[in-house]
Amino acid sequence: MLNVYKIREDFPILDQQVYGKPLVYLDNGATTQKPLVVLETIDKLYNRENGNVHRGVHHLSTITTENYEAARDTIRKYIHAAHTHEVIFTHGTTSSINAVAFSFGEKYVHAGDEIIVSGMEHHANIVPWQMLCERKEARLKVLPVDETGDLMLDKLEDLISDKTRLLAVTQVSNVLGTINPVKEIVEIAHAHDVPVLVDGAQGIQHEKTDVRDIDCDFYVFSGHKIYGPTGVGVLYGKEKWLNEMPPYQGGGDMIKKVTFEKTLYEDLPLKFEAGTMNYIGAIGLARALEYLQKTGLDQIIAWEKALLDYATEKLKKIPGLHIYGNSKQKASIISFLIGDIHHYDTGMILDKLGIAVRTGHHCAEPLVESYGITGTVRASFAFYNTKEEVDVLYNGLMKVVEMLS
Ligand code: PLP
Predict the structure, then answer these.
(1) CATH topology classification for 51-293
(2) How far does residue 201's CA lie from ligand 1's centre (Å)?
């Protein structure tokens, strides 16, 4: 079993007081804290090894380039991609999805075509597709969510038509915590020759991810949600798509030859990495993934499940508390409201008790509004959280009930 108290020593930020109370950080869905090994790597890179990648013949540029390309391979292994050049660095999930919407959309989407998203998507997996549909006069279709918080898979076949060009779905809902059966979704879509983009922003940190097993065409995630730095993310794409897709940004590093008449583009992966990338972030992200592997993914998953079960049972004891998202397959995310107490008020009181949770629509307005509410309180747990912290949350919520009911 994971020794959570030992783990916490690797995350110095957790050991502090907020308003004179020990910090209880339960906003891991928004961003995760970074282990010392990531912080030390970034510190060392800026202090000792900083040179721009792929640019210079000098020592610093050479070692940074080696580290950057090694990071790409670490990520390939982590997500089990077939080729290192299928891993493209971006600024995060949002920029990865926008990249596919622009590049794939440019080549394959035309007037009258259709894109399918699910009813539980984050705005990052809605708005870029809407923008594409507006540009191309295409149509956005939505796979609905049932009352438990699961996708209505039986409706998928009916939604797909010979006009469907792509299906974009989240691996884990950032509001409901539902772990979607992405492999099954891909199977259904592929039976109709529809490629699938999986948004792994909330999935990769809670699940073992094997893009070849899922067989998705694109997989995207953010470094900062998996214990890595901010400002770096990944776009995985199957080689056959990435080779055919046009670059969506032009500039340095993505070219083979430039003349005023014509530019020849680089091969993968650089074709999609215009300008100076966040190479230090990419190397930091690789260190974060190595740290997780060393800690043990099975143990991390088991501990998060134990936390989810413990917290769910505990929160259900709070009078008037309603949980949104009760799928049998859930990651360690709990969204709730207590009676008619406003989510913001609950969040404010918890904050004063040192407890960090997220309140609001969680950038998933269509989903949240489908429940006839403006937002929820969301507690999202990481493997460094403890059962004692769940108890602190429970006591804090009882205080909210006492003050506001
Ligand atoms: N997709 C999901 C499911 C998310 O939860 C988030 C962020 O919360 C995003 C996409 C966007 O991630 P980022 O802001 O790191 O680009």
Answers:
(1) Aspartate Aminotransferase; domain 2 (3.40.640)
(2) 5
The domain locations on the chain are 4-28+296-404, 51-293
Please name every residue paired with 323 in a beta bridge, in sequence order, or none if there are none.
336
Q: How far is the CA of 170 from the centre of ligand 1 (A)?
A: 10
> What residues have CB less than 8 Å from 372, skipping those under 6 apart?
none
To the question of pTM greater than 0.90 for the whole model, the response is yes
CA dist list (Å): 219 to 69, 171, 268, 278: 19, 9, 16, 19
Say yes or no: do domains 4-28+296-404 and 51-293 share a fold: no
**332: helix, coil or strand?**
coil
As its CATH architecture, domain 4-28+296-404 has Alpha-Beta Complex (3.90)
The yes-or-no answer on residue 133 being catalytic is no
| C-alpha distances in Å from residue 262, one per residue of 106, 243, 250, 255, 317 | 19, 19, 12, 11, 67
Give the pocket of ligand 1 (CB within 6 Å): 92-94, 122, 124-125, 170, 174, 199, 201-202, 222, 363
- Taking the centre of ligand 1 as the mean of its atom positions, its distance from the CA of residue 203, in whole angstroms, is 10
Q: What is the pLDDT along the chain (405 residues), one digit of tens a residue?
A: 899 999 999 999 999 999 999 999 999 999 999 999 999 999 999 999 999 998 879 999 999 999 999 999 999 999 999 999 999 999 999 999 999 999 999 999 999 999 999 999 999 999 999 999 999 999 999 999 999 999 999 999 999 999 999 999 999 999 999 999 999 999 999 999 999 999 999 999 999 999 999 999 999 999 999 999 999 999 999 999 999 999 999 999 999 999 999 999 999 999 999 999 999 999 999 999 999 999 999 999 999 999 999 999 999 999 999 999 999 999 999 999 999 999 999 999 999 999 999 999 999 999 999 999 999 999 999 999 999 999 999 999 999 999 998
Catalytic, out of 120, 254, 363, 397: 363
Scored b (16 or more CB within 10 A) or e, 185-199 reads bbebbeeeebbbbbb
